[in-house]
Amino acid sequence: MALPEWQWLYGKPAIRGQLKASPEDFVVIEDLGYEADGEGEHLLVRIRKTGCNTRFVADALAKFAGIHPRDVSFAGMKDRHAVTEQTLCLRLPGKETPDFSSFTLEGCEILHLARHKRKLRTGALAGNAFRLVLRHISDRAALEERLLRVQTGGAPNYFGQQRFGFQGNNLEQAKRWANDEIRVRERNKRSFLLSAARSWMFNQVVSDRLTQQGSLTQAIPGDALQLTGRGSWFVAAAEELPQLQTRIDNNELRITAPLPGSGEWGSRDAALAFEQQSLADSPAFIQLLERERVEAARRAMLVIPRDLRWNWADDATLELSFWLPAGSFATSIVRELFELEGNEADITE
């Protein structure tokens, strides 16, 4: 299924460049945001991997430790074609910590072990730090200008290509499932397809907002506003807009878009009407999410990378580093900088 060309915050870039010429060009370091307890029935295993996906490593660790694969959890998937550090969690009630000195898996290295009281659950991380090498940049001066704009104004918080599968395959299957053309029984696959459907709808609302307003920081009555860096949100009443707009301009608040599902979307008035109009052509997806009892949620439309820094190795090669909160995609930042060539797979969810 072909994906639409979602709108850019600063206009479609004319610059060209390459991302991920090799796995070493894309380094991701997961930030859980806390330290291990040092005791408990769970074992946190910090790994560095290249050329293997997270689920594959989890299954190998489970086999080595003699536990069921379902007793290995992690906060988020990390891409195969990158160098990534992340933590996996092994549930070992009443068991000693295995001796991992003999554990071998090509492309995977164990960095640290620590006991913890609580299971590591999906999404339970603060964010990810990225170190990228961008190659074959066609226009250094133009890229510098866009870097400065992204540094202060951020980028649309789009879900990246990975969420939709190769050539939009996850989205196409979700569409067929929604139209009762196929049945999906496997739990993980159901989760992937449902996620693809509502991620697409989120992106569509953000893109339409940009198309109509040219901004992701101009509030309208009924917008659901999120405290920056927090999950909680509240609805903007019309009479409060001037005061709230000041807080948005000061980066204290972010305007959100819906992750549709069962229950109310959270917005009201003009904002809700806009979102419903934007997704008027998506009734099958909305009905699927309601039928599968996926709870509606909200997500900030804008993401501003923290500690964004860059250094030119030469006029066509840029070394870029930044930190993003959990759930944000590095390629959504890079997408605002230049038109991607080569491997465009995303790294993290």
From TrEMBL:
Query: What is the designated name of this protein?
Result: tRNA pseudouridine synthase D
Judging by the UniProt lineage, the source's domain of life is: Bacteria
Keywords of this entry = Isomerase, tRNA processing
List the EC numbers from the record: 5.4.99.27
Q: Which reaction is catalysed here?
A: uridine(13) in tRNA = pseudouridine(13) in tRNA
| UniProt cross-references to HAMAP family, sorted A to Z | TruD (MF_01082)
- Start and end of every TRUD domain? 154-303
What gene is it encoded by? Answer: truD
Q: One Pfam family this chain carries? A: TruD
Kind of enzyme, top EC level?
Answer: isomerase
Q: Which family does it belong to?
A: Belongs to the pseudouridine synthase TruD family.
- Report the active site residues: 79 (nucleophile)
Stated role: Responsible for synthesis of pseudouridine from uracil-13 in transfer RNAs.
**Database matches in InterPro entries:** PsdUridine_synth_cat_dom_sf, PsdUridine_synth_TruD, PsdUridine_synth_TruD_CS, PsdUridine_synth_TruD_insert, TruD_catalytic, TruD_insert_sf, TruD_pseudoU_synthase
PROSITE patterns assigned: TRUD (PS50984), UPF0024 (PS01268)
The GO biological-process annotations, alphabetized, read as: tRNA pseudouridine synthesis
Specify the species.
Mixta theicola
Lineage of the species this protein comes from: Bacteria, Pseudomonadati, Pseudomonadota, Gammaproteobacteria, Enterobacterales
Q: Where along the chain is substrate bound?
A: 26, 128, 329
Keyword Isomerase among UniProt keywords: yes
A Gene Ontology cellular component where this protein is annotated is: cytosol
Q: Does the keyword tRNA processing apply?
A: yes
Q: Which GO terms describe its molecular function?
A: RNA binding; tRNA pseudouridine(13) synthase activity
